[in-house]
Amino acid sequence: MVAEDAALLRAGLVGMLERFGHTVLAAVGDAPSLLAAVAEHDPDIVVTDVRMPPGFTDEGLRAAVALRSERPTLAVLVLSQVVGQTFAAELLDSGRGAGVGYLLKDRVGEVTEFVDAVERVAAGGTAIDPEVVRQLLGHHRAPLQRLTAREREVLALMAEGRSNAAIAARMSVGEAAVAKHIGNILAKLDLPPADTDHRRVLAVLAYLRG
Questions:
Q1: What's the pLDDT score for residue 78?
Q2: Which residues of 48-58 are buried (b: 16+ CB within 10 A; e: fewer)?
Q3: Are 126 and 202 within 8 A, CB to CB?
Q4: Res 72: pLDDT
Q5: Half-sphere exposure in the Cβ direction for 18 (13 Å, CA)
Q6: What separation in angstroms does the CA of 104 have from each of 26, 99, 101, 147?
Q7: Which runs of consecutive H residues, i.e. helices, occur in the chain?
């Protein structure tokens, strides 16, 4: 399900997703239509803009939060022109946590990365834009002073939704080293271990939101 008021971008999103083998059940241009379309089609994931008609403020986000309140397992990926920390926090707090993403629209231009994010969120994972992560980290400096620079780097990649293998590849280290860093991070931030990647990431993001 795609919700985007700009017709050209909406068509582009639909074409991009279909090109990678996904079925778009509906593509709408305003928040009321999004709510109605989800009720009718029961999609696996909603990709929606934050600002849409009728008010062009945060209608898309409000619709996404309302949908996850009614359907806690519905995956939602929100797109925004700018980093809105309040927007990101509300979205992350919605539903049961799994299957949630917040990306800047610039990320849509990186086709493979964007489609990977859609698929990761649809599967119950997370996809948080690196710039959003950076700002979340920047607003919680005091507790994070316990971490080394390397651990902060790992934390940022964790928050983006990267797996241990992906973090290891990005940092050119072994997975054992990444696992050790993550263990240290969770211990220093007083976060309990989690069995799945998205729960681990959401635990970290919950801490960063304070």
A1: 92
A2: bbbbbeeeeeb
A3: yes
A4: 85
A5: 13
A6: 22, 17, 10, 27
A7: 7-19, 31-41, 59-70, 85-93, 111-122, 130-138, 141-144, 149-159, 164-171, 175-188, 197-209
Dist. CA 23–CA 88, nearest whole Å: 27
Contact 152, 125 (CB under 8 A): no
Contact at 8 Å (CB) between 164 and 175? yes
**Distances from the Cα of 29 to the Cαs of 50, 173, 175, in angstroms?**
12, 44, 43
Model confidence band, residue 209 (pLDDT cutoffs 50, 70, 90): low
Contact 102, 80 (CB under 8 A): yes
**Residue pLDDT, tens place only, 98-135:** 688 888 888 787 898 899 999 989 988 888 887 777 77
Determine the distance from the C-alpha atom of residue 60 to the mean position of all C-alpha atoms in its chain, rounded to a whole number.
15
Query: How far is Cα 90 from Cα 92, in angstroms, rounded to an integer?
Result: 6
Return the amino acid letter for 95: G
Copy the structure tokens of residue 144.
């994070």
In the chain, the N- to C-terminal Cα span, in Å, equals 32
Predicted confidence (pLDDT) at residue 190 exceeds the cutoff of 60: yes
Strand partners, 28: 3
Tokens describing residue 85: 């920390």
Give the C-alpha separation, 208 to 161, whole Å.
14
